[in-house]
């Protein structure tokens, strides 16, 4: 197949050191050389985003020494990569990295002085990971004989709302990205966009949520009407389970946008949960590809699912660190206002609900939320619902989900899952099935989640031996 325009996203592992960056650049260059226009979107070097979050917290708590130590480690990593990629000490790249590190150091010092880390300052700090990767990729592309130009997310036209930490693109983003990148492409220059980040109308830097570089790439893909978006990864593609948990997990050849969204929502870290949303309208395909094995087709994500007989389920996934919040009391019984007040309180806090179940006979509503959101949820509920109701947290939970469009209208799928869980002595705490019938999810005790994942994966014949 011949392409006119591709967006290629390189993840943290693909950017982790000079060798990985050089290899990633060669993957983009391979296409450019045969006449394809390529936009490259890059993540921070593996581990850098976590380091930035950690050092921002250290500065806020007053430990500036720890924050500076961390910055120094990162700085060495960026300079080493630049040098190994052939940058001279007085080159533009080295100067740019030095300046960015200086600004980062000042921002972190500001947090330390104020002992205050707002979501806005956290985004400013954490986006440096991607901003520092972009010049390294530009340099590697140039070393490979291409002309390249790097831009921050905002410079590339990505305009977002001001939900710092979890921002969403504004509708005019697409026009802006097209305006800013088309000229470069037609001049034969490969744009390199810092992923994960955008900016607000007022110019404040925002981030798109963890794993957000996937989202940046699909935003750019939609804006330019790309033929396809390729997300290069350290795995073969989207697999039937997290390969770190299930050793015989298999690559899935084709998934629909809907299936991928369910998988990502229920914890498959391989793609950002909203990554496919920009592609849905225009039907642009997304490919998840292995950088280590570039000719392997990986996973094709498209509008239509492809179902195989006898395999109603395509993947098993899990979210760890979940809490169940129970709202109970005689007052819940059959009174819609009570339910409304529960959801109202949740909506105000902008908490993501993983599962909801109501049992009227038990006068109880249960909500599954990420444990990091539990305290906020509890406080909002205690303030927002009637005093007669008891609101309690049950921590130490995980949510396990099976995903596949083939389960639509099929009988016995849930039964197969519950039998597998029962055989492992896994107690099910909550159950939910979406009306889209793309998934069934259950809450289980966190301690059992790996055993449960393995058992369910096996029960649906997803492993190597039976696939
Ligand atoms: P990148 O930086 O390239 O976006 P990530 O670390 O965010 O890479 O995502 C890839 C990782 O996602 C894999 O290394 C793998 O451990 C994990 N993962 C979890 N579930 C799945 C799955 N179902 N298929 C593939 N990878 C998965
Ligand atoms: N570097 C960011 C993260 O770790 C974004 C990404 O990798 O997609 O979440
Ligand atoms: Mg990722």
Automatic annotation (TrEMBL):
<protein>
    <recommendedName>
        <fullName>Aspartokinase</fullName>
        <ecNumber>2.7.2.4</ecNumber>
    </recommendedName>
</protein>
<keyword id="KW-0067">ATP-binding</keyword>
<comment type="similarity">
    <text>Belongs to the aspartokinase family.</text>
</comment>
<dbReference type="InterPro" id="IPR045865">
    <property type="entry name" value="ACT-like_dom_sf"/>
</dbReference>
<dbReference type="InterPro" id="IPR001341">
    <property type="entry name" value="Asp_kinase"/>
</dbReference>
<dbReference type="Pfam" id="PF00696">
    <property type="entry name" value="AA_kinase"/>
</dbReference>
<dbReference type="GO" id="GO:0004072">
    <property type="term" value="F:aspartate kinase activity"/>
</dbReference>
<comment type="pathway">
    <text>Amino-acid biosynthesis; L-threonine biosynthesis; L-threonine from L-aspartate: step 1/5.</text>
</comment>
<dbReference type="InterPro" id="IPR036393">
    <property type="entry name" value="AceGlu_kinase-like_sf"/>
</dbReference>
<dbReference type="GO" id="GO:0009090">
    <property type="term" value="P:homoserine biosynthetic process"/>
</dbReference>
<keyword id="KW-0547">Nucleotide-binding</keyword>
<dbReference type="InterPro" id="IPR002912">
    <property type="entry name" value="ACT_dom"/>
</dbReference>
<keyword id="KW-0418">Kinase</keyword>
<keyword id="KW-0028">Amino-acid biosynthesis</keyword>
<feature type="domain" description="ACT">
    <location>
        <begin position="402"/>
        <end position="467"/>
    </location>
</feature>
<dbReference type="GO" id="GO:0009089">
    <property type="term" value="P:lysine biosynthetic process via diaminopimelate"/>
</dbReference>
<feature type="binding site">
    <location>
        <position position="244"/>
    </location>
    <ligand>
        <name>ATP</name>
    </ligand>
</feature>
<feature type="binding site">
    <location>
        <begin position="9"/>
        <end position="12"/>
    </location>
    <ligand>
        <name>ATP</name>
    </ligand>
</feature>
<keyword id="KW-0808">Transferase</keyword>
<dbReference type="GO" id="GO:0005829">
    <property type="term" value="C:cytosol"/>
</dbReference>
<dbReference type="InterPro" id="IPR005260">
    <property type="entry name" value="Asp_kin_monofn"/>
</dbReference>
<feature type="binding site">
    <location>
        <position position="130"/>
    </location>
    <ligand>
        <name>substrate</name>
    </ligand>
</feature>
<feature type="binding site">
    <location>
        <begin position="269"/>
        <end position="270"/>
    </location>
    <ligand>
        <name>ATP</name>
    </ligand>
</feature>
<dbReference type="InterPro" id="IPR054352">
    <property type="entry name" value="ACT_Aspartokinase"/>
</dbReference>
<dbReference type="GO" id="GO:0005524">
    <property type="term" value="F:ATP binding"/>
</dbReference>
<feature type="binding site">
    <location>
        <position position="49"/>
    </location>
    <ligand>
        <name>substrate</name>
    </ligand>
</feature>
<dbReference type="Pfam" id="PF22468">
    <property type="entry name" value="ACT_9"/>
</dbReference>
<keyword id="KW-0457">Lysine biosynthesis</keyword>
<comment type="pathway">
    <text>Amino-acid biosynthesis; L-methionine biosynthesis via de novo pathway; L-homoserine from L-aspartate: step 1/3.</text>
</comment>
<dbReference type="InterPro" id="IPR001048">
    <property type="entry name" value="Asp/Glu/Uridylate_kinase"/>
</dbReference>
<feature type="domain" description="ACT">
    <location>
        <begin position="327"/>
        <end position="396"/>
    </location>
</feature>
């Amino acid at each position: 197949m011949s392409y006119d325009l591709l967006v290629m996203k390189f993840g943290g592992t693909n950017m982790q050191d000079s060798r990985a960056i050089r290899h990633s650049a060669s993957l983009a260059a391979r296409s450019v050389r045969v006449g394809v226009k390529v936009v490259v979107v890059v993540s921070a070097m593996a581990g850098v985003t976590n380091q930035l979050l950690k050092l921002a917290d250290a500065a806020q708590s007053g430990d500036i020494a720890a924050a500076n130590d961390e910055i120094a480690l990162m700085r060495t990593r960026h300079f080493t990569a630049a040098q190994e990629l052939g940058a001279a000490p007085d080159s533009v790249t080295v100067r740019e990295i030095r300046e960015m590190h200086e600004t980062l150091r000042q921002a972190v010092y500001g947090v330390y002085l104020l002992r205050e880390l707002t979501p806005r300052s956290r985004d400013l700090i954490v986006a440096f990971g991607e901003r520092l990767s972009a010049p390294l990729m530009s340099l590697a592309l140039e070393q490979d004989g291409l002309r390249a130009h790097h831009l921050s997310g905002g410079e590339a036209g990505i305009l977002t709302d001001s939900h710092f930490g979890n921002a969403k693109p504004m509708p005019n983003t697409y026009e802006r990205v097209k305006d800013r990148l088309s000229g470069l492409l037609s001049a034969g220059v490969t744009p390199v966009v810092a992923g994960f980040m955008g900016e607000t109308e007022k110019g404040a830097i925002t981030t798109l949520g963890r794993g957000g570089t996937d989202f940046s790439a699909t935003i750019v893909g939609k804006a330019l009407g790309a033929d396809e978006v390729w997300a290069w990864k350290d795995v073969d593609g989207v697999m039937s389970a997290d390969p770190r948990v299930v050793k015989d997990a298999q690559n899935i050849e084709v998934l629909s946008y809907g299936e991928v969204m369910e998988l990502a929502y229920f914890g498959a870290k391989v793609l950002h949960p909203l990554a496919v949303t920009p592609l849905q309208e225009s039907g642009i395909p997304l490919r998840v590809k292995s950088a280590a094995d570039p000719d392997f087709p990986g996973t094709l994500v498209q509008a239509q699912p492809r179902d195989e007989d006898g395999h109603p389920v395509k993947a098993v996934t899990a979210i760890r660190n979940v809490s169940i919040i129970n709202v109970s009391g005689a007052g819940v019984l059959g009174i819609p206002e009570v339910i409304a007040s529960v959801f109202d309180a949740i909506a105000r806090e902008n908490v993501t609900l993983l599962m909801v179940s109501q049992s009227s006979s038990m006068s109880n509503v249960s909500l599954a939320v990420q444990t990091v959101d539990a305290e906020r949820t509890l406080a909002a509920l205690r303030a927002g619902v009637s005093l007669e109701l008891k609101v309690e947290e049950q921590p130490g939970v995980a949510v396990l989900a099976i995903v596949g469009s083939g389960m639509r209208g099929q009988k016995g799928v849930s039964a197969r899952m519950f039998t597998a869980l029962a055989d492992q002595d896994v107690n099910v705490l909550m159950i939910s099935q979406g009306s889209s019938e793309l998934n069934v999810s259950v809450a289980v005790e966190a301690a059992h989640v790996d055993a449960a994942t393995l058992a369910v994966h096996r029960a649906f014949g997803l492993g190597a031996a039976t696939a």
